[in-house]
Amino acid sequence: MPQKKYLVTLSTAERDHLDRLVTSGKRSARTLTRAHILLKADQADGGPGWDDARIADAFGCGHRTVERVRTRFVESGLEAALTHKAQDRPSRTPILDGAAEARFDRSGLLGGRPTPGPPGRLSLLADKLV
Fold first, then answer.
1. Half-sphere exposure of 34 (CA within 13 A, CB side)
2. φ and ψ at 54, to 5 degrees?
3. Cα torsion 43, 49, 53, 55: sign
4. pLDDT per residue over 11-58, tens digit each?
5. What are the backbone angles phi and psi of residue 44, rounded to the nearest 5°?
6. What is the pTM of this model?
């Protein structure tokens, strides 16, 4: 197995912070899972130093999630590893621009109620049904 490039070594203060965070349970499940991952991946003296597969099995996540959390901790610090990374760009491009959306909305097809059809249309439909 190849040597890990990003090793997590937590200081005593960081470990205490993560322990308090995990035991309080007042954060999102994603944040708590990341805190657990960092605690179990700790390679410092007294840290468990679990491998990625064992951590992934223990917390029900993928091994790539464990790798990404370790990488973000080493490159950007503790808070960056715990929080959700904002996307640089939207996940997909919008189909309508602002002008097209306003035009589409005025036609009654988007948002509010549909506009009434041509006069006599309802009676034509009623005649067909009868």
1. 22
2. -65, -40
3. negative
4. 999 999 999 999 997 899 999 999 999 999 999 998 899 999 999 999
5. -70, 170
6. 0.67
Long-range pairs for 30-33 at CB < 8 Å and ≥24 separation? Answer: 30/84, 31/82, 31/83, 33/59, 33/61
Q: CA–CA separation, 95 vs 74, rounded Å? A: 39
Residue type, 90: P
3-class SS of residue 42? strand
CA angle 32, 70, 37 (to 5 degrees): 30
**Encoding tokens for residue 121?**
């249309």
Question: What tokens does 48 get?
Answer: 């468990």
| CA nearest to 36, candidates 51, 17, 55 | 55
